[in-house]
Write a structure and sequence with these properties.
2 copies of one chain form a homodimer. Chain A is built from 6 helices and no strands. Chain A is mainly alpha-helical. Chain A starts with a helix and ends in a 14-residue tail after the last helix. The C terminus of chain A is likely disordered. In chain A, helix 1 packs antiparallel against helix 2 and helix 1 packs antiparallel against helix 4. Chain A has one domain: Phosphate transport system protein phou homolog 2, domain 2 (Methane Monooxygenase Hydroxylase, Chain G, domain 1, Up-down Bundle). The interface between A and B is large, with 43 and 43 residues.
Chain lengths: 223, 223
Amino acid sequence: MQRHLDQELTQLKEALVRMAGLAEQSIGLSVKALVSRDAEMARQVIASDDAINQMEIEIDELCLRTLALYQPEAGDLRLIAMALKINNDLERMGDQAVNIAERTVELLKEPLLKPLIDIPRMAELAQRMVKDSLDAFVQLDPAKAKAVCEQDDAVDRYDDQIFRELLTYMMEDTKAITRSVNLILVSRHLERIADHATNIAEDVIYLVEGRNIKHHAQDRSPA
Amino acid sequence: MQRHLDQELTQLKEALVRMAGLAEQSIGLSVKALVSRDAEMARQVIASDDAINQMEIEIDELCLRTLALYQPEAGDLRLIAMALKINNDLERMGDQAVNIAERTVELLKEPLLKPLIDIPRMAELAQRMVKDSLDAFVQLDPAKAKAVCEQDDAVDRYDDQIFRELLTYMMEDTKAITRSVNLILVSRHLERIADHATNIAEDVIYLVEGRNIKHHAQDRSPA
């Protein structure tokens, strides 16, 4: 019985890693579309959200099936409850990537406001956090999870910096306003993605070390 | 055994209703602080987030304990899995209320930009959606849940309208920029709260009717 349960848990972890891969890809593409001014790519991101949503439903069902069939105890039970949460976080990340792609479609209606430097860097960092948080979960590695939590501050600093810089652009030129607000929203969406990765990492630490570090570094926006 | 399980499930529902009450209260106070220009009230909202966070941890533990002790099947199992999700949604709503309170603290550093009409209406609507989504859950009432999903469009229209109006303010007067951006962010936070309530309502429909309406009306921001 435990052997079958272990197989299900392995399958569950693999499914979450695949889903995280899809979310990462959407985040990467949404920002690539913005930087390379590729509306077609942005629309691809919007269309591909269905696959992530479908996967969320399947993973939820897999969790419920495993709970019903094996009635797991203690650690395994916590692992599945956590999988339900991670699943939710990953789906929300996909939504945030869609939001970025939608802002991109708006932004492409006007010429480039300024060369984008910080947003791509912030996106890279957020993507790495998504990947590392899932690695921490699969390997049950609290050190890796802590590293993810620490990176969240760097993302918040980017968000803060981007916010202030774009305020300056708007003050100097009213024609820059719509684009600046849209870029501020892109930055906020990336910040939310990093928050979701941080939630996952905090859950891993809780699962492994049994203590709750959640809600110490709250997802309060810095700007 | 089933009777004990039923008692636990009742306790779980009551805890979620209490937590929803706290979230609703935070949302209401954060917007009241904004409208009445009360920085002290805004800081209260920020401080009270700890209580919501603590409650999330306790409800998670209650879910896990119930799963471990009673190994519930079918409908009861789904109900508990759903409670885990609702719990997460409620905690995120609390975070959004904190975000609004933080924007409020910023906004109070400058004079009132304009009388706030749409934001309080939008907040009222969002609060009602939170309450109704929890009622739908407790009563397992899919009709009430559908009514919540339908209100989400009205919230999106408010968000859209507020976005456009504030863009105009910024275009006309660069001194209005910082306040306008902060009000746009408040509107976005309210829109996210309504999304969380809609998620809960969709989960209720799924639980009762066994079909997934999620991801049809996606939480894509309209503006």
